[in-house]
Design goal:
The chain has about 270 residues and is an alpha/beta fold. It contains 11 helices and 7 strands. Helix 6 crosses helix 7 and helix 10 packs antiparallel against helix 11.
């Protein structure tokens, strides 16, 4: 059965936010700031107040059970997972942002928001909530949600993993923690700004973009000497960067790319 849309029932819908984690806390704060009657965020085991819309900000594995528990004829139920299909929920709304939980409502202004709906009215509800919170909604169908979320993880989660690797490579220099991040952060910000403004081909710099495989070889030797566990990551990133460099118009020197040496007979690779 299709649930009624927000506009059909109330121009100023009430929203019950379920889940008091990072996202639920920020979403509830933003909904109140936008003038919507907002309940929660409710924590595990607490009763969920009735509302026009129930918005689940819970772990992906709990969504189906929560929808089944809270389903009623007078409410729309949506989830905020990026990778999870709609399932039995009416709509999905996934803010494309990273949250720590203490952000002000302005964190949502201007960001992308992946929306989906089981029916046009449910999609309109997701889109309307995104608009109300100042986000930029875009539709993502169920069959593309995992791919979309993988892109988000590469852009955000794995970026943090890369910066952790960079920090570890600065440790032998006596630079660690806050000091290392203070040195690296301007480079990271400038790189991301260049990528956003000009695209990956134009933003790429460094030895691989110049075809300087001798420098890459020295880098690889240093990684092997000081952080050998990062060598597979270094090699994978170098290979992908060569593929990106091949798409640019920058001429490269004729040089054989650095290859991971084959392990000697009877010995493990480093």
């Amino acid at each position: 059965m299709t649930s009624p849309s927000l506009s059909a029932r109330s121009p100023h819908p009430s929203v019950s936010v379920v889940g008091a984690g990072r996202l639920g806390t920020v979403i509830a704060r933003a909904l109140r700031a936008a003038g919507l009657t907002t309940h929660g965020p409710t924590r595990r085991g607490e009763p969920v107040p009735a509302a026009d819309v129930t918005l689940l900000c819970v772990p992906d594995g709990e969504i189906a059970a929560m929808v089944a528990t809270l389903r009623g004829p007078a409410t729309l139920i949506g989830h905020t997972s990026g990778a999870t299909p709609l399932g039995a929920a009416d709509f999905a709304l996934h803010p494309l942002q990273t949250f720590l939980g203490d952000e002000r409502p302005g964190i949502l202004h201007g960001i992308g928001c992946a929306v989906a709906g089981r029916a046009p009215d449910a999609l309109a509800t997701a889109t309307g909530l995104a608009d109300t919170l100042g986000m930029r909604p875009f539709a993502v169908a169920d069959e593309h949600r995992a791919t979309y979320h993988a892109a988000a993880s590469v852009a955000s989660n794995y970026l943090v993993t890369l910066q952790d690797a960079a920090e570890r490579l600065l440790a032998p220099l006596g630079l660690a923690g806050d000091e290392a991040r203070a040195i690296l952060a301007p480079l990271v910000r400038s790189t991301v700004d260049n990528w956003a403004a000009r695209g990956p081909e134009a933003a790429l710099t460094g030895p691989i973009a110049r075809g300087d495989e001798a420098t890459v070889r020295r880098q690889r030797d240093a990684v092997r000497a000081h952080a050998a566990e990062l060598l597979p990551l270094f090699d994978a990133l170098a290979d992908r960067t060569r593929a990106l460099a091949a798409r640019t118009a920058i001429p490269t020197q004729a040089a054989a790319p650095v290859q991971a040496p084959a392990p000697a007979q009877g010995r493990r690779a480093s």
